[in-house]
Amino acid sequence: MGTANEQIRVSGVVKRELESRRREGESYNDVLERILEEGDRDLLAGFGRWSDEHADHVRQRRETSKEKSKERLERLAEDG
Question: What is the pLDDT of residue 34?
Fold first, then answer.
């Protein structure tokens, strides 16, 4: 195990996945090295994924929400 000299940012989801793969006494660097040596380059392997239909639905809901928020802000600006 070498000395850490670089930092990388990962999402909470990725960190939890690394923690679940971590063996006793391993650093995160050790986990990543082991995973890469094993040829398991897909760190998200095994994660649940949304279906295309569900992802499209979520995107549409988000877009609608953004539009409504923009309209509310415009009305507030007009009233102010």
Answer: 86
